[in-house]
Every structure is written in C-alpha cells, then in structure tokens.
Amino acid sequence: MSHQCHWTEAVDLFLPREAKIVKTAQPTELEKHFTLQMIDGEPVDFQPGQIMELGLLGYGEIPIGFASSPTNPETFDVVVRSVGRVSKAINQLEAGDTLQMRGPLGHGFDLDKLRGHDVLIVAGGIGLCPTRSLINYILDRRDEFNRFVLFYGTREPCLQLFTDDLACWRGMEDVEYFETVDQGDPSWTGNVGVITTLFPKVELGPETRAVICGPPVFYKFVVRELDGIGVPHENIFVDLERRMKCGVGKCGHCQINDKYTCVDGPVFAYSEVEDLGEAF
Amino acid sequence: MGKPKVAFFDFACCEGCQIEMTNYGAEPFLELLNHVEIVEFREAMTEKTTEPIDIAFIEGSFTRECDRARLEEIRERAAIVIAYGQCATTGGINALKNHQDDYKEYVYGTDSDMPHLDSQKAYGVDAAIKVDYYAYGCPVNKYEVLQIVLHLLHGKEPVIPNYPVCVECKRRETVCRFLEGDHCMGMVARAGCTAPCPAAGIPCEACRGFVDDPNIPALEKVLVEQAGFTPQRAHEKGRMFTANALEATS
Amino acid sequence: MSSMFIKDDDFSAFVTTMIEAGPVYGPVAKRSRFIFERLESPEELRLDYDVTILPPKKLFFPPAQDLIRFDADEFKSAIDPEEKVLLGVHFYDVKGLDQTDLLYSERNFDSSYMANRQTTTIVASNIQNVSDRAFFASVGAGVPAKGHDAFLTSITGGYVFEPLTERGEALLKHGAFVAATDAQVAEAEKVNAEALTKCKEKHEHSAEDIAAKVAAAFDNEDLWSELAEDCFSCGSCNTVCPTCYCFDVQDTWNVDAVSGQRTRYWDACLTADFAQVSLGEGATENFRGSRGERFRHRFMRKSVYLNDKLGQPACVGCGRCSAACTADIADPVRVIDRIMAS
User: For C307-335, what is each residue's pLDDT tens digit?
Assistant: First the structure.
C-alpha cells in the first residue's frame, strides 16, 4: 500500500474531546449561547471562521462555527440554533453539563489578507455567529486593521443575536455599525429593508476587504453591491454552510462541486467558488 | 420521575402490529419494560386506562366517522401520538376499498346491511387527529419501533428513512428481483424494514408506503418494460399499501 | 519477488490451510450472482465469478460501521480490525480499493477504514468470466492496479501466484508452491491480457475528452433532467460502486437506554435528502434538490472532479451500477456517449 501512515499511529478522526459548559444565555427563542471549556485543559487553537463538530452522545454531532475570538484561549463560544435532533438536545443543556467536540476543523479567515485594510463584514441572521469570532478578534486588535464597517440584517428585530454586543457596537466610535430588519415592529426605529439597503449609508472603496456570511439567498445580492464598489472577488470572503456529517472531508455531504466545505472551507475567497455551479 | 406510560389502541386493522410487540423474545421486551410502563395493550393484558399517557401507539385506519371522538379523546390525553403500522400511517391495505363501490357486498355478502359495517374511505389516523410520529410497515419493524421508543425516551425525534428499499437490498447484497425476471416496488418504497422480502425472493409491495417523492411514472415504465406488466396492471400495482398516496400523485 | 506455481490438485489444500490460519474471504455464489463472503471451505470459493454484487470495500468500510461506542461513564473508539486474507479480487476492484485508500488517507487519515485495510492481505485474481455490463478495459487503461499483495492467475494445470509484498509472500507457506516456469509466467500474462478483450461495452473517447465534455455540459440542465427522468433516487448506482465512499452518521442507544454507538452508514448522493439541511421552524434547504442535479453530481464526480488527484477517472469499469439500476439509466458508457453527443 502506498499511503504510509499506520493506523496504530494515527489519531482517530471521530473520537471527540469533552468540553464543559461554563455559561449559557438564551438570546432568542431558538438560539442558545454557550461558553465552553475543554475538560482536558488543552486550549483549542482556532482561527476565526473555523468550525467544530459539536456532539452529544446518543444524539449525534453538528458542524458549528466558533462564535468567540481566539484572543481568549481559555474558553470558546458557540451559538446553537434549535433546528434538528442534535441542536435541540444541546440546547437543553445548562452550565456544568458536558458535551463533546472535534476540532477546530476546516479553513477560517485568512487574517493576513484583512490586516492593514478597511474591513466590511456583512452578516445575515445566524451568520453573525461565525463572524462574531472575527468581529471580536478585530476589536481586540483594532489597531491592526483600518476602518471597520459592520452590517447586520435579520428578518425581525426579535431575531437579533448578541444584543449586548450590538448595544456595545452601536456606541463604539471605531466601528461603523449599521443594522436592518426585513420587517419592523412597533418598537423598531432603525432601518427597514433587505441587507443591501445599508450600502448607500457608507462610502466604501475598492480596496475594502469584505466578509459575507448569511442565508443561502444572501450572497449574490451582497456581491452585486460589492461589484458596484469595485471590490475584486479575491478580496471578498464568503463563509458557506452545507449539510455536514464528518467534518473531515470524507462523508461527501458538504460538497460544492469538487470542493469539500468542511476542509476546503467553510471560508472561501469568492473568486475560488464563484464559478462553481453548486455554490450559490 | 416515574417511567413513561405507554398505551396501545386499535381502529380498523388486524392488530398484527400489536402482536409484533410480543415477538421480541423475552429479553429485549423485559429490558424495555425497565424503561416504560405499558398501561393499556389489549393483545397482552386486560387492564385499561383513562389516565394521561406519555406515548400512545394507535393502530388501524380512520374509516368510520364515529371513531373520531375516540381518536380525539386519545389525542387529548396523550403527550405523543404515534401512528402505528401502515393502516394508521397511510390507510394501508384498508384504503384499497377507496377505489371500489361494491366492497361491502363483496366482503360481507348478505350481512353487508348491518349498520356497524358502515364506513367511509379509509385514511391514516392523521386524517382525524394530529400525529407526532409514524411507525410504518405491514407489520411494523419491531426493531425500528424499539429505536423509536429509545429515541423518545431521550427526547430525540426518531430517525425514519426517506430512501427506498433498494438501498437496504444492496447493503445486504440481495439479488435484485428484476435480475431474476421478477417485479418489485423497492425503488419507490420507503425503507426501514431492512428489506426481508426481496432477500427471501419475494417482491417488495411497498408495505411502508412510498418515499416522500416517488417517481411513479418511472415505476410504471419499469413494470411494463422489464416485468412485462400491462400498463393497467402497472398503474394499479402501487395501490396495495399506498392507495391514498397514488391518489395524491395521479 | 519471483512468480510461483501451484497445481490444481494442491490448490484446495492451500485454501484450507489459510482458512485454518485465520479468516479468509473470497467470492462465493449467492442465488444467480456472487458475493464476497468469509470462506468456510475451499469448495465455496468461486474464482470463476464474473462480478460480485458489492465490491470488496464492504470488508473495509462495512455498510454500517461503528465509529465510537459509549456507556454512562465513557466513550471510546470502535476501531477493532480483523487480520484477514481476501482472496480473488479482480483488478478493477483492486483499483477501486486503491482509489479509496488514497481518498481515505489524504488530508485526514481515516483509521476506521485504514485499520481494516492495513490488516488485510489481498490476493488479486484473473478475470475468468466477464460480466455483461463491464467496460474495465476502456477506463483508466494506462493506470495499473496496485495496493494488492499478490496476484493469482489460473493457467493450464494450476495457478501462477505472483507475490508483490511481504504479506503476499507470507502466504506461500500455506501451499505446495514451486517456482513458476517462464512458460507458465508467459501463459499467465496472456490470460490476463485476453480478459481485457472480452468486455462487451467500452468508452469510445479518452478520459481527458470525456472530462472536458462532461464539465462543459454542467450548465445543460435539459440534458441532465432528460438523463435523470426515470431516476428513482434509490442510490443503487452509488451503493454498489467500488469508488463511492460517502456516509451518513447516526447515534443509537442500546435497549438498556444508556449505552449506545455512533455509527456511519453508506450514504448515496443520488438519494433525495443527501444534501438537505434543516433551517429551523420546519424549513429546509436542499442544495441538490432535483434528480438532474443529483445525477449530474455523480457523473461530475466519476469523470471530472477527481481525475487530477487519482490520475484516472473515479470509475473502474466494473459495470455494477449499470446492472443495479432498475431503470437502466446509470450505465456510464451509455450516459457518457449521450453527453458526448450533446
């Protein structure tokens, strides 16, 4: 056989590590915010945008992005949306409970390509979770980046995540934060409209580095706006979601043409994936 | 917390799916009783209950309007309702009468006037009440039912396949019926049974109903071209367990 | 390592001795077809088989394979390989395994598969009968099979046994082998060359031309929906394929309701839900929602996506998909002919 690692010397890809829930919060009816700490004490060395398989024995595993900045190595955050068997079971857990994780997995944001530039992050719905890791990273090392513009859109005001963070960002001078909802409610005084209605509110140049993470329909509309500004596609980074089972490039579910979202992504330069017929 | 209370109820059916519960053999069945308390199950015990129940297994079709009240009463006091067996999930074999006018005379002969034999079209019980989960099959796969119960004990939604029986035949290397000059409906039939019939040389009759999106035109084409069916027979073939589903697609 | 010869009369004793030494798997009859199965006796072995229903991948990556097992207190790896001999694998299946070996070991090394692979001695054998749908002679023809430990060829009066690795050579102790003569080696070469002339189906175009044309047809939605019109989304073409290796993962509990396992099951990209995700509140998104899109993915994967990595198409020409497809729309030769003509 030509492939020369022996199985007795290899790590078992599917054997998870245990993590303890340090803290929980319930930002919306469907989403729960967990702060986790590895039980073996080994910190998880991840990049913003990378993912993990978060699991609960008997229930299964789900792929999920890190929602906190790696600048805090002691703990990490995830936000779990109750959509399926595993996420619903995980969202029953409370501080002190344990679960399992495998990771970090995949490719995150290439921070070197963002440093020293204006950065625009466009997040839609739960797409704020994986980008929150990058947002907090940038805020923690603010002087490494130039202008920092953040667009956040949700369907309704009650679906906003990380409302404490949002309050904080609204008041920060070195963050140009804009938010919108597709449909307002009586208490909402902000912008109403799809995410692209935020673009006229700020002057952006073609040297901007842009990051997009949102629901499947989101990308092509945002890219159209960035094309208007003249941002080259290799400077646009998209964080994609697919069905994923193994997280290690084997099970095939997350394929976008010949790419495996779990190992080639989930963060791609737009130029890498724009011609893939199955990407958008 | 006490053990979850489980009860079995039956409507228009042969009660064979309830009998399946007694076919595990002593060990798994007794082990199961460590985790649930069976409070009503007329195939195996005389007690009945009017108390709230955690899981109600309802066997049989909804085919008489007068059964609606009893179904609603069960729904009212059951936290989880499982349509149990093909009669309860899709109407099953009872729905064959949905395409006939003379079935009563045909089946009951001179007794067909008796009022308790009055019935309308046969449907799954979800035509009368909300159903939470479906245990398909004629009869049910008892091991799948065991997994359904184990999942529900942990608050996890059961995993029911939406792929066809062909998957299970191939996994166990059953020689395809078509390769032996026979016919089969495994290509459109919902898996989960582990495909025992083709393994025994018997065509799949789709006793668990169809997958969510069955390719019925292709089924009829294959039955005509490869199994030598007349177009009429190919068209009617799927009705045995899936008369209501075919009605919906045609 | 030099080629050896064993007489027909001694072959049965060779197989018996191997069976006594440990598990031996080989092709056996099942009704009108063949399957790889653990041998109880040498009489069951059918080296004259044409093709098995499933390829030998099932012995390394079983249709249901536990990944981890757990109970109330702990969880642990379920990797527990069996030292075994696999006898009588045709060269196209060796190529299928070799491709899977690469894909399961590159980037992330999958021990659940590789442990089974690395504890198995594979003896390939010549093709005595060619199945009706095989086209192995015209796919990846320039790429030799590798990854097996020995090659067995049936010739006049016995078998030529060519050891290729130490594992293969170690089997010699089980039988009455003598050095093969030049004439015997020459006959074996001739037998194997002749098998390549017996396929009834063949690709008429080079792998490069096929890859270019299939890739160019990606956006031809009408073509793909025409090709997939009769598709049952049953995944049989995937399930029987020696180069398919996708899987689903599910957790189940044992009847004690406490212990259980995380298990991977063969999955199939042709089935309807393969790329479907839940979005919450009952909403779903299916990234390959139509039959045509799923059908296209299979052909892109078999004839385009992996060619650079594998140095050949991800198809070995066994013809199992053609035979397994009830609607008879999966045959790569016919489908690719249709695409080439589009």
Answer: 999 999 999 999 999 999 999 999 999 99
Q: Does A40 touch chain C (CB under 8 A)?
A: no
Q: Is B162 on the interface with A (CB under 8 A)?
A: no
C183, exposed or middle or buried, with CB in 10 Å at 0-12, 13-18, 19+?
exposed
- Work out the number of other CB atoms within 10 angstroms of the CB of residue A2: 9
* The two structure tokens encoding residue C302: 């078999």
- Domain ranges in chain A are 7-105, 111-273
Chain C neighbors of A16, CB-CB under 8 A: 68, 75
Task: Give the integer Cα–Cα distance in Å for B133 and B11.
Answer: 17
Which class is domain A111-273? Answer: alpha beta
The alpha carbon of C75 is separated from its chain's Cα centroid by a whole number of angstroms, namely 31
pLDDT of residue B248: 65
Rounded Cα gap, residues A169 and A178, in angstroms: 9
Cβ–Cβ below 8 Å for A92 and B157:
no
Residues C195 and C128: their CA atoms lie apart, in Å, by: 7
Q: How far separated are the first and last CA of chain A, in Å rounded?
A: 39
| Residue A242, pLDDT above cutoff 70 | yes
Look at C77 and A14 and tell me if their CB atoms are within 8 Å.
yes
| Interface-testing mutation among B215, B229, B237, with chain C (most C C-beta atoms within 10 A) | B215
B69: number of CA atoms within 13 Å, CB side? 1
| Chain A residues whose C-beta sits inside 8 Å of any chain B C-beta | 58-59, 85, 88-89, 92
Q: How far apart are CA A274 and CA B9, in angstroms?
A: 56
Tokens coding A73 = 């190595």
Q: Give the pLDDT confidence of A171-218 residue by residue, as tens digits.
A: 999 999 999 999 999 999 999 999 999 999 999 999 999 999 998 889
What pLDDT is attached to residue B249? Answer: 58
| Radius of gyration for chain C, computed over Cα atoms and rounded to the nearest angstrom | 22
B99 near A CB under 8 A = no
**Is A7-105 a domain of CATH 3.40.720.10?**
no
Structure tokens at C35: 């399957």
Q: What are the chain A neighbours of C250 within 8 Å (beta carbons)?
A: 60
Cis omega before residue A130 (within 30°)? no
Structure tokens at A176: 């140009």
Q: Do B156 and A89 touch (CB under 8 A)?
A: yes
By CB atoms closer than 10 A (0-12, 13-18, 19+), residue A41 is exposed
Domains observed in chain B: 5-153 (3.40.50.700), 165-249 (no CATH)
> Three-class SS of residue C281?
coil
Which of A90, A253, A275 should be substituted to probe chain C, the one whose Cβ sees the most C Cβ atoms within 10 Å?
A253
Given an 8 Å threshold on Cβ–Cβ distance, is A89 in contact with B159? Answer: no
Model confidence at C162, pLDDT cuts 50, 70, 90, reads very high
Q: Do B187 and C232 touch (CB under 8 A)?
A: yes
User: Are A59 and C75 a contacting pair at CB < 8 A?
Assistant: no
Residues in chain C closer than 8 A to B24 (CB atoms): none
Question: Does the complex come out with an ipTM higher than 0.85?
Answer: yes
Distance CA A30, CA A164 (A): 17
For C239, which of B171, B213, B218 is closest by C-beta distance?
A: B171
Concatenated DSSP letters of A120-138: EEEEEGGGHHHHHHHHHHH
pLDDT digits (tens, 9 = 90+) for B101-157: 888 888 888 888 888 888 889 999 999 999 999 999 999 999 999 999 999 999 999
The whole-angstrom distance between B26's CA and the closest CA on chain C is 13
Q: How far is B148 from chain A (nearest CA, A)?
A: 13
**Residues of B whose CB is below 8 A from C271:** 162-164, 167
Q: B124: how many CB neighbours lie within 10 A of its CB?
A: 25
CA distance A250 to A241: 16
